[in-house]
Amino acid sequence: MIRSELLQALARENSGLRAEEIERVADVFFDEIGQRLADGGRVELRGFGAFSTREREPRKGRNPRTGEAVEVPGKRVPYFKPGKEMRARLNTE
């Protein structure tokens, strides 16, 4: 699903809201998640999962074009852990 499909689904479920209002709600939702993660926090959506960040250590990499060794700095990366209900929904047969 892409963002426009999500907005269309929200519009179908909330016919009383204008398209601009639905888009603003989605913007605030994603901005808040991004800001919380940038601040080093965690976002938990019960029944769906939890977003957090993980630290990656600095390491030696290799330039694929030249084969030269390069230093890759450490960084924080986003991480998602699905909730129990999400895992159950994905594994029903």
Architecture overview:
The chain has 93 residues and is α+β, with helices and mostly antiparallel strands. It has two domains: 1-39; 41-93, Irregular (HU Protein, Chain A), CATH 4.10.520.10. It is built from three helices and five strands, in the order H-H-E-E-E-E-E-H. It has helices spanning 3-13, 19-38, 84-90; strands at residues 43-45, 49-56, 59-62, 69-72, 75-82. It has a three-stranded antiparallel beta sheet. A two-stranded antiparallel ribbon has the order 3-4. Strand 1 and strand 2 (49-56) form a beta hairpin. The longest helix has 20 residues, at 19-38. The radius of gyration is 19 Å and the shape is elongated. The two termini are 22 Å apart.
In a nutshell, what does this entry contain?
This protein is an alpha+beta fold. The protein folds into 2 domains: 1-39; 41-93, HU Protein, Chain A (Irregular).
Major sheet attributes: 3 strands, antiparallel
Cα end-to-end separation: 22 Å
Query: Any idea what the shape is?
Result: elongated
Radius of gyration, in angstroms, nearest whole number: 19 Å
Give the name of the CATH superfamily of the largest domain.
IHF-like DNA-binding proteins
Please, how many helices? 3
Structural class: alpha+beta
Q: Mind telling me which CATH architecture of the largest domain this is? A: Irregular
Q: Give the total of beta strands.
A: 5
Q: In the CATH hierarchy, what is the class of the largest domain?
A: Few Secondary Structures
The SSE string, one letter per element, is: HHEEEEEH
Strand ordering within the main sheet:
1-2-5
Q: Helical content, roughly? A: 40-55%
CATH topology group of the largest domain: HU Protein, Chain A
